[in-house]
Amino acid sequence: LTLDIAKAYPEEAHVKTWQRSITLNRGKNVEISEKYQLKKFIEPFTLNFLTPLIPVVEKAGKIKLQNMEKPDVSAYLLYNAKLFTPSIEKIEITDGRMSRSWGNALQRVVLKSKEKALHGQFKITIVKK
User: Which has the closest alpha carbon to 48: 75, 88, 5?
Assistant: First the structure.
């Protein structure tokens, strides 16, 4: 799946193009490739990943997504540590219908860009343990 998501951003973000490709390599991994061009640099961008799993930064560039109920069912989110700084936020779920499916909280993995570039490309990989 490949699409240009530039129009998803407001004009004041100064995004000229932002091409996102998502590739499922069946039985192996999911690759998210991004290539962007900005009209003007305003501030670092962030990538957000929501998960019901528990994220643990194992080392720069590698976040383990742990299934606490089934420890053998885990995954890794791999990223270029030279390009991004990770953080993790807990998001409480207060909607009763959502909590029946997702539990009381989700985790947001935030990757914040380090570069002040007007253009670039990178790849995020999610691989099953």
Answer: 88
